[in-house]
């Protein structure tokens, strides 16, 4: 293929013009970069200030949480009821594990003093026929390198009462269905190797960010009404969609009948 000399000249001219324009923009781009660097510095300072405020109010909230825990201990099956009323956590407890939760006297979520470094979730049980432990804890530690280290209590199950492998249910005449995971296996889901920062533990996040701040709304079944309302809206939307589909079908049928009459 032979390229027209005129076209070659135009392409060369455009290239030179582009280089010239880019060269003229360099000082502006450098100034923009300086401003972006300045904004990044301000954002970092803002994040540090937010953490300082959050840490201050965490210390203020702590004794309030302790007073709340003391009152909850006087309410039978408070945490069991709150768990079962939660739209996600409620699906994690089978009947045998619900019996274990009747021995749960307190739940505690505590951030480390340095908020960025992690938190722990602690389940405190009264003496029970299932395991020797009275405290089950899971801890999440975040490093400056952006990794997460997870540790959990190794549960000391009493003989024949291990719910993780289904022993307790077998003793009661029913075996755990294959593939059904025990809530208590969550404590053993630890990662000795440091995990990437993007690693997510949904159960921990739900307990920390949703259940722990206000368990009373789940104990009172207040949150369930909100979810039912959403479902009702979805159902209404489906009904309207169905009606629209039916109207559309009838319109199509009328058009088809009209076409047939024209053909006749």
From TrEMBL:
<dbReference type="InterPro" id="IPR037231">
    <property type="entry name" value="NAP-like_sf"/>
</dbReference>
<dbReference type="GO" id="GO:0000724">
    <property type="term" value="P:double-strand break repair via homologous recombination"/>
</dbReference>
<dbReference type="GO" id="GO:0005634">
    <property type="term" value="C:nucleus"/>
</dbReference>
<feature type="compositionally biased region" description="Acidic residues">
    <location>
        <begin position="225"/>
        <end position="264"/>
    </location>
</feature>
<dbReference type="GO" id="GO:0006334">
    <property type="term" value="P:nucleosome assembly"/>
</dbReference>
<dbReference type="GO" id="GO:0042393">
    <property type="term" value="F:histone binding"/>
</dbReference>
<protein>
    <submittedName>
        <fullName>NAP1-related protein 2-like isoform X1</fullName>
    </submittedName>
</protein>
<feature type="coiled-coil region">
    <location>
        <begin position="25"/>
        <end position="56"/>
    </location>
</feature>
<feature type="region of interest" description="Disordered">
    <location>
        <begin position="217"/>
        <end position="264"/>
    </location>
</feature>
<keyword id="KW-0175">Coiled coil</keyword>
<dbReference type="InterPro" id="IPR002164">
    <property type="entry name" value="NAP_family"/>
</dbReference>
<keyword id="KW-0143">Chaperone</keyword>
<comment type="similarity">
    <text>Belongs to the nucleosome assembly protein (NAP) family.</text>
</comment>
<dbReference type="Pfam" id="PF00956">
    <property type="entry name" value="NAP"/>
</dbReference>
């Amino acid at each position: 293929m032979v390229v027209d000399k005129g076209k070659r000249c135009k392409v060369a001219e455009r290239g030179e013009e582009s280089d010239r324009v880019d060269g003229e923009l360099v000082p502006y781009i450098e100034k923009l970069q300086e401003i972006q660097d300045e904004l990044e510095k301000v954002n970092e300072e803002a994040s540090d200030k937010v953490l300082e405020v959050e840490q201050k109010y965490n210390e203020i909230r702590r004794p309030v949480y302790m007073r709340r825990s003391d009152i909850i201990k006087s309410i039978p099956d408070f945490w069991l009821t709150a768990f079962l009323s939660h739209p996600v956590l409620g699906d994690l407890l089978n009947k045998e594990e619900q019996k274990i939760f009747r021995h749960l006297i307190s739940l505690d979520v505590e951030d480390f003093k340095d908020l960025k470094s992690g938190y722990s979730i602690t389940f405190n049980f009264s003496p029970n026929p299932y395991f020797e432990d009275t405290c089950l804890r899971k801890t999440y530690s975040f490093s400056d390198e952006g990794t997460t280290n997870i540790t959990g209590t190794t549960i000391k199950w009493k003989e024949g009462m291990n719910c993780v492998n289904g022993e307790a249910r077998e003793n009661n005449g029913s075996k755990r269905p294959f593939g059904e995971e025990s809530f208590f296996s969550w404590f053993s889901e630890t990662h000795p190797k440091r995990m990437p920062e993007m690693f997510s533990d949904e159960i921990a996040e739900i307990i920390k960010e949703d259940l722990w701040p206000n368990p009373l709304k789940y104990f009172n079944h207040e949150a369930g009404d909100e979810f039912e309302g959403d479902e009702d809206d979805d159902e209404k939307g489906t009904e309207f969609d169905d009606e629209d589909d039916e109207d559309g079908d009838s319109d199509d049928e009328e058009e088809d009948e009209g076409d047939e009459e024209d053909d006749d």
